[in-house]
Write a structure and sequence with these properties.
9 strands, about 300 residues, 2 domains, binds norvaline, alpha/beta, four-stranded parallel beta sheet
Length: about 300
């Protein structure tokens, strides 16, 4: 994957996804080899971040390279400076860019003008690094991906978009329970259906959390109000009120089901208070796996090592 951008999960084949999972599994056991000695990564972040920022920074350091963090006030993508100029300048300095921004089209424009790989560190449309790390976590816990069923409860947001594409590429059945008006958009759905027709993954959209959770191997949720939607928070709290994941909903899933959340979580909103302490919860494994999977990704796109 040397030189390749990762803006959407749809940029990957199932073979590439498996290469990343396999490589991340190896790296997790033996992680401090300086394969990226002297290489540098620019982190352009226009939204807040804990996991993505820390895990990419550490990933570079532990592989012998380094990262440079650039906040919104420093870069101002498309405002202080045209995106095309930012892309061309950074391409002369660093070996890879991770961008977290609002508009997915801005990330695409950055990638179009950059001559180095650009990785999506979250846009309003997708969060591919989260979905790939989640596949690693599910694989570790379940020993397979194909044939499992993931139930996503809540907003069909960036995380859900990346998950439905990732699941349908690797043959994992995907169910999503969301209120009317907050369901997966046709563009993403048709892509996922196309991937599913090859991999065998089925896709189910419902408005009923219990229908989605019934017998599922993985129950997944995310915030009701994503970054950038803060003005809608009060309205969303009402719309999503019956989409909270609690022990009663988890009890409808398979008895060995795992519970996942990309974090940050709003305890008492999309998850019942205390749910992260449930024996089903693997959320901190998910957070840790961001580091390992992203090391595999950086090695692959910067150095062509898999
Ligand atoms: N959907 C959330 C994910 C945060 C990791 C957001 O975009 O804010």
């Amino acid at each position: 994957m040397k030189g390749k951008d990762l803006l959407s999960i749809a940029d990957l084949t199932s073979k590439e996804i498996w290469q990343l999972i396999t490589s991340a599994t190896k790296i997790k056991q033996d992680y401090r080899r300086p394969f990226l000695l002297g290489k540098s990564l620019a982190l352009i972040f226009e939204k807040p971040s804990l996991r993505t920022k820390v895990s990419f920074d550490l990933a570079m350091r532990e592989l012998g390279g380094h990262a440079i963090y650039l906040s919104q006030s420093e870069v101002g993508l498309g405002k202080r400076e045209p995106i095309s100029d930012v892309a061309q300048v950074l391409s002369r300095y660093v070996d890879c860019i991770v961008v977290r921004t609002f508009s997915h089209q801005d990330a695409e424009e950055l990638a179009r003008y950059a001559t180095i790989p650009v990785i999506n560190g979250l846009t309003d449309e997708e969060h591919p690094c989260q979905a790939l790390s989640d596949l690693l976590t599910i694989y570790e816990k379940k020993g397979k991906l194909k044939g499992l069923t993931l139930a996503f409860i809540g907003d069909a947001n960036n995380v859900a978009n990346s998950l439905i594409l990732a699941a349908s590429l690797v043959g994992m059945n995907f169910r999503i329970a969301s209120p009317n008006g907050y369901q997966v958009k046709e563009r993403v759905l048709s892509l996922a259906r196309r991937f599913g027709s090859v991999s065998g993954a089925t896709i189910l959209l419902t408005e009923e959390p219990a229908t989605a959770a019934e017998g599922a191997d993985v129950v997944y949720t995310d915030v009701w109000t994503s970054m950038g939607q803060e003005a809608e928070a009060e309205h969303r709290r009402k719309v999503f009120a019956r989409y909270q994941v609690d022990e009663a909903l988890l009890a409808k899933a398979h008895e060995d089901a795992i519970f996942m959340h990309p974090l940050p979580a709003h305890h008492g909103e999309e998850i019942a208070k205390g749910l992260l302490d449930s024996p089903h919860s693997v959320v901190f494994d998910q957070a840790e796996n961001r580091l390992h999977l992203q090391k595999a990704l950086l090695l692959s796109v910067i150095a062509g090592i898999s």
